[in-house]
Each structure stands twice: as structure tokens, then as C-alpha cells.
Amino acid sequence: MTTGHEHTVKAFDRDIGHLRALISQMGGLAEQAISDAMLALTRNDPALAKEVRAKDKAIDAIEAEVEKLTVRVIALRAPMADDLREVVAALKIAAVIERIGDYAKNIAKRVASIHGETHEPRIEPLSILPAMAQLASDMVHDVLDAFSARDPQAAVEICKRDSALDDYYNSIFRVLVTYMVENPKTISQVAHLLFVAKNLERIGDHATNVAEMVYFAATGQTMAERETSDFAG
Amino acid sequence: MTTGHEHTVKAFDRDIGHLRALISQMGGLAEQAISDAMLALTRNDPALAKEVRAKDKAIDAIEAEVEKLTVRVIALRAPMADDLREVVAALKIAAVIERIGDYAKNIAKRVASIHGETHEPRIEPLSILPAMAQLASDMVHDVLDAFSARDPQAAVEICKRDSALDDYYNSIFRVLVTYMVENPKTISQVAHLLFVAKNLERIGDHATNVAEMVYFAATGQTMAERETSDFAG
């Protein structure tokens, strides 16, 4: 091994460490955005909703930084195989976290439409959404832990949780539609709640996408290939 | 200029030509998916809806090809400045088109829920959605033309059209909510139509995002910077 090569390896390790730190930081901001958006919604707190929207720019800025760094790493260090997969995964994961941040921002944007300007009656089904948000947010947290730990088995577990979230969403959809039928005056507000529930369901889908990327980065196999070989075995 | 350098330049041109062709092919498939999904919806054609869902895999496959090619180009050709911006733009645009395909697939998935299994009454507001779909699909078409032509001015024009689409969406939202209030038996079906309208609005947002990427790739400036300097001037 030449000194030049060693130098490149160390530089690569430093870069990948930096990438992991940026992803972890983005993930923390996205989790915070989900929980603040839900607090703003359940407490009818427009100031907090505004804060969520403002802070989304910080997530976007880190994504741009990840993009610059990954391009530089690929161009300068020319990583191969496992290392290249990990760098590309970081780039793609950053794009997904940015979208998760957008969903949280979108929930925050709906606070005013859901509560209305006048003091309209409280929408009861609102109370079942925070538990769904917690499920989605936990998936985001755990999948980023799996990325940091390069743990494909944890990634598989997270994918399994997505169907529980989908079931939760389907129940909420029915509850909200029934509520609309029984309380036609609230239809406009509850329609916004349907979108909130859908946003939470999409956050879970994105966490699942990240889990698939983590799995591929760590193993070089897609999760579907793994399932196929399981069935074959 | 050395022969080796010339060789790299020619190889780069060939790669970027290949990338553009892949993006254009993906875009064509995404446009087709939007129009087929809307046909399936307005004609209540479950077979066509199923076809849209199946064809989405082709879009995903091209995205994976774009990703592989961009990573190879960055690693092997080490493009700089304008060229690097264009390669990164191709990677990001492919990811956005993949999402546009997902929105079309999502519309196709709702065909059964909107029409119901029994022959329920036709939902009148369905008739106003195809025009909105056309607006969104045209934005996708035109922004990919702008990418092929490296035309930042065309990209700016596309961004302006997004607010017309947003207005359309807001009108449809109100029409659908009014329809729900007046026809409570259709609430569940119309709730799915709300999501269809929202998907079309999101497709427009994504076309706008692509327009911003095209602008940045062609000029090295973000569109916001341009606006700021316009205001300053």
C-alpha cells in the first residue's frame, strides 16, 4: 500500500464521517419538524407552525451541502464498490429527508385551515393523529440509526413497521370520512386533516425507502433480491 | 490539447447525450402515465389503471440507469463547472420524474375507490380534473424540453405557470368540498378525488423544481438569485 493510497483512504474515511454527521443532523431536524408540526396542530399554535416552516430552510441547506460533498468525494476519491454505494446512499437519503421535512412543513401550513379563524368546534378525530405521527417519526429515527450503524437487519425490521402505519392511516381515513358525514359543517377542515394523515403515511413510506437504501448500501443486494432468495431457500 | 484530453471530452459528450436521452425517455413515460391514469379515472377503466401501475417499473428502471451512469461519469470523467452541474442536474431530475410517475400511479390506484364496485352515481366534479391534469402534464413536457435545449428562459416561464395550477387546485378543492356537503353519500369517493387533485398539484410543483434545476444547470445561478438581482436592478 502506497502512502498516497493511505492518504486517500484516510481522506475518504473523514469525508464519509462528515457525510454521516450531516445526515444525522438533517434527520434530527426532520424529527423535530414532525413533532413541532403536530404540537402546533393539536395545540392550535400558529407561531410554532410558522417556526416549522422557517426552519425547513435549514434542512434544505444541509441537503445542498451533502450533495456538494458527495460529488466531491466521487470525483476526488473515486470510491469503489461498498464505499461508492455508501456515498450514493448518503446523497439519496439526504434527498428523502428533505422531502420528509417538506411533509412536516405541509402539516404546519394546514394549522390555520384546520382550526379556522373563528373558534370553530374542536375536531375530535384530531386526537388520534399524534400517535400516528409518533409511529412515523420513530421510523425516521430508527432508519437513520440503521444507516449510521450500517445495520441491514434493522433496516428490514423498519420496512415491516410500514404496514402497521398503513393500517393506521386506513383507519383514520374511515374515521375522518365518517366524521365528515356526521358533521357536514366541518368537511372543509376535516379534508385538511385527511391530508395531514396522508402526509404522515408518506413519511413512513419514505422511511421505508431509506431502509431499502441502507440495506443496499450495506449488502450490495436489494431487499427484494433478499426476499426472493429467502423464498427460493 | 492532448489526444487523451480530446478523448475524455468526446467520451463525456457521448455520456451526457446518453443521459439526456434517458431523461427524455423517462419524461415521455411519465407524461403517458399521467394521461393514462386520467383516462382510466374518467372512463372507469380498471385494466388501464392496472397497466399504469405495471409500467411504473420501467420508469424506476431508467432512474436506476441514470444513477449508475452519472456516478460513472463523475468518477471517470471528473467533469468541472458547467458539465458537473449538468450531470448532477440529470441525476436529480431523474429522481423527480420517478416521483411524478409515482403520483400518476397513485391516481391510477384510486380508480376503484372513486368509482366503487357497484355502479354508484357518477361524481360530477370528476369532469373538471382532466383539464388540470393537462396543465400539469404540459409543464412536465415543457420543462424536459427546456432541459434538452439548456434553455433557462423557458425554465423561468414554466415556474410562472405553477401559480395558475395552484389556483386551479384551490378551486377544485372548494368545488369538491361543496359537493361533499351537498352529497354526503359520496364523501368517501370524493375524498379520493381530493387526493387526485392534490397529486396533480404536486406534479406541477415537481415540474417547477425541475425548472429550477434546469436554470441552475444552465446558468450556475439559482432562480432566486436571479430574482434578487432583478429586484436590485
UniProtKB/TrEMBL annotation, chains A, B:
The PhoU domain, residue ranges: 23-111, 131-214
Record keywords: Cytoplasm, Phosphate transport, Transport
Top-level taxonomic group: Bacteria
Database matches in InterPro entries: PhoU (IPR028366), PhoU-like_sf (IPR038078), PhoU_dom (IPR026022)
Chief location category: cytoplasm
Localization, UniProt: Cytoplasm
Gene3D superfamilies associated with the record: Phosphate transport system protein phou homolog 2, domain 2
Leader sequence segment: none
One Pfam family in the UniProt entry: PhoU
SUPFAM superfamilies cross-referenced by the UniProt entry: PhoU-like (SSF109755)
Subunit structure: Homodimer.
Family statement drawn from the similarity comment of this UniProt entry: Belongs to the PhoU family.
Function: Plays a role in the regulation of phosphate uptake.
Protein name: Phosphate-specific transport system accessory protein PhoU
Source organism of the structure: Sphingomonas hankookensis
